[in-house]
Amino acid sequence: MTEPSTEPTPDLSEYQLGESVGYLLSRVKSTMSNLITQRSMAELGITSQQGSILFMVASGKCLLAAELAREYGIDASAVTRLVDRLEKRGLLTRVRSNEDRRVVRLALTPEGHAIAARMPAIFNGVLDSLLNGFTPEEVGFLKSMLRRVLVNSDEQTGLSRDAASNFDSKS
After folding, report:
1. CA torsion angle for 111, 117, 122, 127 (degrees, to 10)?
2. How far apart are CA 50 and CA 107, in angstroms?
3. CA–CA separation, 22 vs 19, rounded Å?
4. Mean pLDDT in the chain?
5. 164: pLDDT strictly greater than 60
6. Would you list the domain boundaries of the chain?
7. What is the b/e burial string over 53-80, where b = at least 16 CB atoms within 10 angstroms of the residue's CB?
8. Strand ranges for the chain from DSSP E
9. CATH topology for 40-129?
């Protein structure tokens, strides 16, 4: 049994959730995903995540399930379930590598390619509606700031990997 905490309960009344950058980024991501799903389900019968995966495979950015897991920050079993659903729908296939039989690449079927080709219009339509009233300069500034956040994230991830490899070498 654990002892009750003797730490004072933090006063959260001053914390303004709506002003938190993390909260705002999360809400924007969720809103975008929901709007893309509404459009892609109506037009193509797929979710935003399924459409995004098809697009990533079509663009060549992610050709392995492990690459999708890293890109989306989800575990391998979740990617496997998503790929299983897309494969069952006849939108992609798994292709074993001739060079290394352990490697399984993802490839789109003709129908998968057709859907992937329609995703940019859906992505852009949703973004256009969300960025309504922004000037091109403001959109450029927003993209620049988001890229900086990603660079910082990559640096943190690199530090985490370095720390992990240092730990592994000492174990």
Report:
1. 150
2. 14
3. 9
4. 87
5. no
6. 40-129, 133-171
7. bbbbbbeeebbebebbbeebeeeeeebe
8. 92-96, 104-108
9. Arc Repressor Mutant, subunit A (1.10.10)
